[in-house]
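User: I'm preparing a small set of examples for a lab meeting where we compare how different chains pack in three dimensions. I only have the primary sequence for this one, and I'd like the structure in token form so I can line it up with the others. Please keep the answer compact; I'll paste it straight into my notes.
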Amino acid sequence: MSNRYIYQVAGHVFEVTLPQGDPLTQQMRQYEPFRILGTDQKLVFRLQVVAERPDKGEFVREIHQDDDGSEILAGSVDGHPCFDFLLSGRWQARLWTDDAYREAVLYAEGERLFGLNDALMVMFALSTAGQHTLLMHASVVSYQGAAYLMLGKSGTGKSTHTRLWLEHIKGTELVNDDNPVVRIIDNQAFVFGSPWSGKTPCYRNVHHPIGAFIQLSQAPLNEIRRIKGIEAYAALVPSVSGKRWDKRIADGLHETENWMAGHVPMFHLRCLPDGDAARICCHAVAPQVEASMVKMVENNDAIHEVEALLKEGYKVILPVKGQSMLPFIVGSRDSVELVLPDSALVVGDAVLAWVNGSRYVLHRIVEIGMDGHLLLMGDGNIAGKEYCTLGDVVARADYVVKPDGSRTYLYSKSQHFYWRLWKMLKPLRRWILAVLRRTIYRKYRKNI
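Assistant: Understood. Below is the structure token output for the 448-residue chain.
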């Protein structure tokens, strides 16, 4: 006698059969949100859990995968696919399957739920590889109706970064912390929660359109850039589960990965484990969230238009001309996102202001007088300062916007450190800027 359970994950249906009275059924609570009573839909696979180890042939090892103590030995028995699952070096379970990955048998002892979870993930990844589906190693959050997948090797900080979104980005929710499922449906990319979520118990039967993939790497600063083409493909592939030495599986995965790399925005975030990293990432990858409240002003002489839009509650993106804010803002290349200050201005703020009763500049506050007068100076200037009052300030620049859409927060810890260092180098600026203008900023020299 046996008990039969049917589950639906990311729209795919599979069946698990266990011996009647098997205590493993009491440990499978993570699967309950995905359990269905019945279906007319074709099963992607069946898995039978058996109480006694079947008498089969010799295991021939093909490849070994080790992920933080969780090991999978992939190989074959009598010419058919077989997988051994080990935990901390100890054998836990063996999975036998047919060549099509539709019918499978699992024998588990020791940490039996561990063996079952690994077996089901293997079967799910392989049986759906040709159906525009990817089982991924990623941590996922949802924000304002879209989902954002953090990619990277184990230990990179995927879970840390999603936690920072939860702490610092209001309205963020965790979708899955380790093994979400990605699908192409009607020419659109979606991510689904799954019964597999690593060390974080987040087993949510939810799905969202994908806003972006974000490849993470640790760094002593926070910066993000858009990646495309082969770079995007190469960033995505290591996070996808699959049996790539099986041509049929590899071809199915490649088709879906190639589509994702070409149709879904992908970014590389070099970051610290801090709140600024989450904020910078969110503003770069989720611009549609505030798109209705952002206006682009093409002519930076139309300051009256900027003022009017800011008063209406919009943020304004303004192209920068001139090179008085090098090296932090490059004229004729960068734009800035302007906002009405939501707190008192401080030394170090970059502001758009009417100065000396004659012109507008975008310069840095270097001094605030007791009477409220401000002293401004461009980061790229050797000498010369401007004076204005608080009432002359039109806006504060919060972000530098690059041509590829990536953004740098001007007041992050790393940017503040670089600005303070730049101030200390004032006696050397003339020579540093001369080198920069002839190398990094050479193509902008006509404006320098």
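A couple of notes for your slides: The radius of gyration is 28 Å. Residues 350 and 364 are 4 Å apart (CA to CA).

User: Perfect, thanks.
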